[in-house]
Structures are given as C-alpha cells and as structure tokens.
C-alpha cells in the first residue's frame, strides 16, 4: 500500500513537471529578507520565538514550473539564551547564558500549492508554499568558544504575494535541524535528565518578510509554433 502511494505521488509530481514545462517560461527572482532568529536547545527546550535576535539576508529562486522552484539563500542571524529567563530550579542553579551569531546558507526545493507566475495576470496572487533542503551554518562569533560550523537540514512554510509583473513579497518561517549540540555551549545531558525535553541536537529558526524581483526570464517557444505567445 505504501509503495503504491509513493508511486502515485511520484507520478503526479513528474506529470506536473511535464505538463507545466510545455507552457511555462522559467525565470529567476532575487531579493532580500529581514526578520528574527531564535534558538531551541538545552536552555530553551520548547518556547517559540524565545529571545529573538536580528536576522537579515539575501535569497534567490529559480522557478522552473508553475508549482516548483529551486531556492538558495544566505541569512545572518543572532541566537541568545539565558537560564535565568526560566523559573526552573535546575536552570536557576546552572545559570548558563550564551550569545552566538552565524551565517546560514542553504539550497533547497520549494513547492507552491498554487501557480506562482509573476508574468501572468490570471494567476493566484497569494500562494502558500513549503520548502526543504540541505544547508551549512558558519559560526561568526560565540561567547562560549565552543560552537563550530555545522551541517543543517532546513524546512518550513511561507506565503508569497505577486504585487505586479516584476515584484513579489512574502513571509516565511523556517526551522533548522542541526547536527551539533554546542551552539549554546551545553552538551545534552541525555534522555534520563528530566529537565531536558529535546533529546537531540540544538535547533534554530528564522522568521520574517522578504521581497523579490524578477531578474531573468528564459524565453520559451513551443516546438511547431512560429511566434512566441506573450502572456499578459
């Protein structure tokens, strides 16, 4: 049963690529991001948007079909944490704090739930999407002296809005699964410690708004058609 579901989903994905590829004009958009970044780990095991720090960055997306695009981004973020922010007796006794800044880079795949074509007027304006990929984080500064560059798995959700034929704006919230436990300078005590609920490595997230501009569009002429049809 699982094999049939996977086969059907794969077939549907390939079908959309083939059908859309016959009428879609691939284009690339680039822009800027601004928002906040925050950390989850031994100090903050579950609270979202804890101690948010400044985040800025750049992003680029290559749209190769109505619903599909490849994305690349580079975000700067600040992560902070302090045991004294929590009433937990264990953390009050430990009294550990940290501050880290990093450069988060990733390449990934983005799926639009509705067609996102900024050169057509008859296209849905607000488009929700999901994304996932592979990334790498460069530690720029850390007051613990223990944080190191590391691999990440980014994933998240967002929504974008087509303003006109050249500009799109949107908002996005993405998490980063890391493969290090030293962003906060604390080793995970392990699953037997009742004060720790994340029995894995540290995480961090980015949330904010972005604006992108169409910078390149590939002219596509369908075989057998002498003149290119312009979408208005």
Could you explain how this protein is built, in words?
- With 232 residues, this protein is mainly beta.
- The protein has one domain: Porin, CATH 2.40.160.20.
- It has two helices and eight strands, in the order H-E-E-E-H-E-E-E-E-E.
- Strands 1-2-3-4-5-6-7-8 form an eight-stranded antiparallel barrel.
- The chain is elongated and about 60 Å long.
CATH class: Mainly Beta
Largest sheet: 8 strands, antiparallel, barrel
Do you know the CATH topology?
Porin
Q: Radius of gyration, rounded? A: 21 Å
Measured by DSSP, the beta-strand proportion falls in over 45%
Overall tally of structural domains = 1
Q: Roughly how many Å apart are the termini?
A: 44 Å
For the record, the CATH architecture stands as Beta Barrel
- Largest sheet, order of strands side by side? 1-2-3-4-5-6-7-8
**Helix- and strand-based class?**
mainly beta
The stretches of 5 or more residues where confidence is low (pLDDT under 50) are: 17-22, 194-198, 224-232
Counting H and I runs of at least 4 residues, what is the number of helices? Answer: 2
What proportion of the residues is helical, as a percent range? 10-25%
